Amino acid sequence: MKKLGSLKESPFNPASAMDYLPEAELRRLQLGRLQESVRRAYHDQRCGQLKSRMDEIGMTPGDVKTLEDIRRLPFMTKTDLRDTYPYGLFALPDREVVRIHASSGTTGKPIVVGYSRNDLDVWTDAMRRGMIACGLSENDVIQVSYGYGLFTGGLGAHYGGEALGATVIPTSGGNTERQVMVIQDFGTTAICCTPSYFAHITEKAADYGVDLKKTRLRVGVFGAEPWSDAMRRHLEEISGIQAQDVYGLSEISGPGVALECLRQDGLHIFEDYFYPEIIDLETLEPVPDGVEGELVITTLCKEAMPMIRYRTRDITSLLPGRCGCGRTLRRINRIGRRSDDMMIIRGVNVFPSQIETALLRIKGLSLNYQIVLTREAGLDQMEVKVEMTPDLLGDRIMEIEEVQKAISHSILSITGIHAKVTIAEPKSLSRSEGKAKRVFDRRQL
Amino acid sequence: MKISQIAIFMENKPGHLRSICRTLADAGVSLTALSLADTSQYGILRLLANDWEKARDVLAGAGFVVNVTEVLAVEVDDKPGGLLALLDILGEANVNIEYMYAFTCKLGERAVMVLRFDDSDKAVAALQAHNVKVLAGPEIFRNV
C-alpha cells in the first residue's frame, strides 16, 4: 500500500536521542531525578501528605539511595488527589504554576493538576518524541481531534505536534462532518483522537461517500481509552492508516507518557521523565517483567505536582527485553483494561475490551455498542446492545436471531458470561466525541 | 416473474411505522401489500411497492436499514380450499415456504398470495406445471 510504504523506521533518530540512551546512563539519570523529585514532594507539597506518610514509616528523602529504594516509598492514589482538592499536592507557589488541567470526575469533584513552565516543556517533549516513534515528522499535517480544554488530550497532542515542527490543525472534538472535510481538504496525514471517535469519523466518512483510503491520512495516534487489537486492525483496514497507541494520564502529565513505535510491540515509556513499576494487585509488591499487574508511575521531572508512586489503575506488564527498533526505553504492554473499568458480573471479572473483541469477531457489526448491567431476582444480567446494519438484515427473523446467537456465543467464549444481545436501530446508540461511554451499570446494590 | 420485496428493520417503538409510511408517502411511493414479522424486541416490515427502487432509496436515505429480497406473487381462487390447492402443489414438489402473506386486489374472483421460498425457481416450475398463475410486477401494481 502506497500510504504505509511511506512510514520508515530509522535505527537512530537524533531528534529523539534520549530514546536511545545507554541503559546504565539512563538508570543514573533516573536515580538523580528520583531523589530530587522525592525531596521536592517531601519538603514542598502544600498539604504535607508525603512528608507525614514518610515520617510515619521513619523514612527521609535521603534514604532513597538506589532506584530499588523506591519500593519503600508510600503509594499515591486518585483518592489522595480528591482529598487534597484542588491544589493540596502542588509543590510550587501559584506564580510558578503556569497551567491547570482537570479530569472530569465521574463522581463529585474533578481531579486538578498543575504545571510549571518546565513541566509543560517535559510533557511536550515526551509527546514530540512519541510522535517521532509513530513515524511522524515535520512533514506531517496533524489533525488534533481530541477535545481542547481542561482535558489534557487536545493541548498535549497540539504542543507535541508543534514541537515536532509538523503542521497542526486544532479541530478539537466534535462536528464530525467538518472533521471529515478537514481530512479531505486540508491534506491531513495524521489524526490524534480517541479510537472510538475515529471509528465514528470513519462511519461519517462512509455516509458522505468519502473513502479515507484515498485521502493522505496515513497515521492515527489513538488513546485516552482502552481499545482492543481487533479494533486496531479494523480501523486500519477500513481507513488504510497505521493505528498507533498512545498512553498518558493527566495526573502524570497527559498524553505522551508512553507511545508505540512502528513495530506496534508495546508502548515505550519515556523513562527519563517517568519511572514505571508494575505491582501485584493484592500484595502491592513489584512483580517481575512480563507479569501483569497495576502500573505505578513516579514523575521524575515534575515540579508543580510531583507524583510519587502513583497508582494508575491501569493493568499491564513491562515487556522483557529490548525493542527491535533500537530504543533503550522499556515498554509496557497495551492497556486492555483498567481496574476501574472492570465489571464484576456474577463474580466473574469482565472488561469492556473483551466484549469489543467478541463483537469484532462477527462480520458486519457496527463499532458502536453498549453494555447494560442490571440485577434481576438477585442475579446480575449483562445486556449487550449492538446496532442493526444492512449486512446483518435479511428479510427473516431467523437470520437476526442467528446473529444474536453468534454474538452471544462469542461473548460467552471470551468472558464465560451469557449475555442478552439486543439489536438496536442503526445510529441509535449514542456516539461519543471523546472517551466513549460503553458501560451502564444499573444494578441496585 | 419474481418481485422485489423491501424488508425494513424496526425496533418496537411508538411512531415507527408511521415514520416509514411518511417517508414513502412523501416520495409518492404506493404500497400494494405488507406484512410484519415481530418479536418482543423488534420487527421486520416487508412490503411490496410500485416503485421498489425508489422505496429502497428513500428509506435508506432516511436512515432505515433496508434489504431487498425476491418473492413470488401467486394467484389463488378466492373460495374455500383456494389456498389448500396451492399448498398441495408446493407440497408435492417438496418446496419449502419461508413465509407468506395474502392480499386481495381487483383481479376478479381471485386473491393473491405473496410467498417467500427457499428455492423460488423450483417453486415457479411446480406452479406453472399446474397452471397456477404467477404474477409479474406490473400485473399486481396495475390496479393500485
What keyword list fits this structure?
heterodimer, A: 445 residues, alpha/beta, Rossmann fold, GMP Synthetase, Chain A, domain 3, 2 domains, 9-stranded mixed beta sheet, 4-stranded antiparallel beta sheet, 11 helices, B: 144 residues, alpha+beta, VC0802-like, Alpha-Beta Plaits, 7-stranded antiparallel beta sheet, 33% helix, globular
Question: Overview of this structure, please?
Answer:
Chain A contains 11 helices and 21 strands. Chain A is an alpha/beta fold and 445 residues long. A 9-stranded mixed β-sheet of chain A has the order 4-3-5-6-7-8-9-14-13, with helices on both faces. Chain A is globular, with a radius of gyration of 22 Å. Chain B has 2 domains: 3-69, VC0802-like (2-Layer Sandwich), CATH 3.30.2130.10; 71-141, ACT domain (Alpha-Beta Plaits), CATH 3.30.70.260. Chain B contains 5 helices and 7 strands; from the N terminus they run βαββαβαββαβα. In chain B, strands 1, 2, 3, 4, 5, 6 and 7 form a 7-stranded antiparallel β-sheet that branches. Chain B starts with a strand and ends with a helix. The mean pLDDT of chain B is 88. At the A-B interface, α11 and β20 of A face β1, β3 and β4 of B.
